[in-house]
């Protein structure tokens, strides 16, 4: 499938790359353009003597370029794809050049090696070797659990002191005090909880948020509940134990997740958002199955200017199998296999109302109380022109608060013209953060299509 210009620009790692790619998407800057059934290539003249060789695996939306950029895809990859979408006649069907063929073969070899490793993992192991490996792994696990227990015990003491002194005392301590506690959690190998505590401390300095104190109190209560749950981990259901460990900082190898039973469906890519903290970028992509109606969250991470390994473009859909990470209410998933993506034909039904969405969220929280966000689709949503902090849902006759950090009210108003529209986003139990908009037959992902 060939993506359109909007979808291609959504692949860019940042707005600057998207803009530069658009400027390079002119025939005068390219030579040696060609394509085969599954690949695309061309050479772009830069400031050096030799042109940059750029190539794209159309089947997997994978990019490679000889330029020195560490961004993925780079501006040359974006430009080459935009050229194909806008002027396909420039690309004659030809035999794959050696430099493109070598790359495609290396990609295939890596896939085969990966499949071989997965096969070896599932093959019976030597009983003695396996027992020794399991014993060493358990010893490492017990050592980490001891460190986490000590770290969370210190955290509970610190939170008790904060409660006695009052939340207002946290401001006087300054962000440095919060960062120090967060650093001790890093030492205790509770990295996920550490980042959450640091973000909580930053709420003190978000002056535009009228509900800042309430949000901080709720977040502190949630963190305290999590620390308490760790102390009583053995008393919790096994599925919920996975959620507690994940919220603290444990991760499960994706190879292990892919061994679980898959869920087959046509998966629609409905929303995507990227956060950047301490040079670590995290990309969250929300999918929903057409037949099952099941939500799935894909999480990817990258460091510095490094791009994300896989590209999932909002507004597309693919047939495939997902395997879900264990938990009391599984949302995070990994892709076992997928067909080539295609433009999605959205499936929004009568259940995509505020009442139905909140009811589904309450059922999820009943089994997984540590769930900090839940995906919602709101049909016929109307922005409140008199109060930009709220969105109305006439189908349910109610309104909900928009998240205080939401900054794209005017963008949505311009798209919808004040008429009812469909919003897709995340609900944190108190406020709704729109991530994408479906209107007049098109999906607008707010981060990639509007924020730039």
TrEMBL record:
Region annotation Disordered: where it falls in the sequence: 110-148
Keywords: Metal-binding, Zinc, Zinc-finger
PROSITE patterns: ZF_SWIM
Biased composition (Basic and acidic residues): 110-120, 136-148
Superkingdom of the organism of origin: Bacteria
Residue span(s) of domain SWIM-type: 52-85
A Pfam family that the UniProt record links to this protein: SWIM
Protein name: SWIM zinc finger family protein
């Amino acid at each position: 499938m060939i993506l359109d210009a909007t979808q291609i620009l959504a692949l860019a790692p940042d707005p600057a790359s998207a803009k530069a790619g658009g400027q390079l998407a002119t025939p005068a800057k390219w030579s040696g353009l060609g394509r085969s059934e599954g690949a695309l290539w061309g050479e772009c003249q830069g400031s050096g003597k030799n042109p940059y060789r750029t190539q794209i695996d159309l089947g997997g939306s994978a990019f490679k370029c000889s330029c020195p950029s560490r961004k993925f895809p780079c501006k040359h990859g974006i430009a080459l794809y935009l050229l194909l979408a806008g002027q396909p006649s420039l690309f004659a069907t030809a035999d794959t050049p050696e430099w493109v063929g070598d790359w495609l073969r290396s990609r295939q070899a890596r896939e085969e090696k990966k499949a071989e490793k997965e096969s070896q993992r599932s093959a019976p192991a030597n009983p003695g070797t396996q027992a020794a490996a399991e014993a060493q792994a358990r010893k490492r696990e017990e050592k980490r659990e001891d460190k986490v227990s000590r770290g969370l015990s210190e955290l509970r003491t610190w939170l008790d002191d904060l409660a006695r002194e009052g939340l207002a005392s946290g401001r006087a301590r300054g962000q440095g005090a919060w960062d120090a506690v967060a650093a001790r959690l890093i030492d205790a190998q509770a990295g996920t909880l550490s980042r959450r505590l640091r973000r909580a401390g930053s709420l003190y300095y978000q002056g535009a948020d009228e509900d800042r104190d309430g949000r901080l109190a709720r977040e502190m209560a949630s963190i305290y509940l999590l620390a308490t749950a760790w102390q009583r981990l053995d008393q919790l259901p096994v599925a919920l134990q996975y959620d507690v460990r994940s919220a603290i900082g444990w991760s499960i190898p994706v190879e292990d997740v892919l061994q679980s039973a898959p869920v087959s469906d046509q998966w629609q890519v409905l929303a995507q958002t990227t956060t950047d903290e301490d040079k670590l970028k995290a990309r969250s992509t929300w999918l929903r199955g057409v037949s099952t109606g099941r939500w799935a969250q894909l999480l990817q991470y990258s460091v510095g200017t490094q791009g994300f390994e896989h590209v999932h473009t909002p507004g597309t859909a693919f047939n495939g199998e997902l395997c879900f990470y264990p938990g009391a209410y599984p949302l995070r998933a990994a892709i076992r296999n997928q067909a080539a993506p295609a433009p999605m034909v959205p499936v929004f039904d009568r259940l995509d109302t505020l009442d139905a969405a909140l009811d589904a969220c309450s059922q999820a929280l009943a089994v997984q109380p540590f769930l900090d966000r839940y995906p919602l689709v709101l049909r016929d949503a109307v922005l409140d022109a008199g109060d930009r902090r709220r969105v109305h849902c006439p189908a349910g006759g109610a309104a909900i608060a928009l998240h205080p950090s939401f900054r794209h009210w005017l963008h949505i108003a311009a798209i919808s013209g004040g008429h009812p529209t469909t919003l897709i986003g995340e609900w944190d139990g108190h406020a709704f953060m729109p991530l994408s908009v479906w209107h007049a037959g098109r999906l607008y992902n707010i981060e990639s299509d509007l924020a730039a």
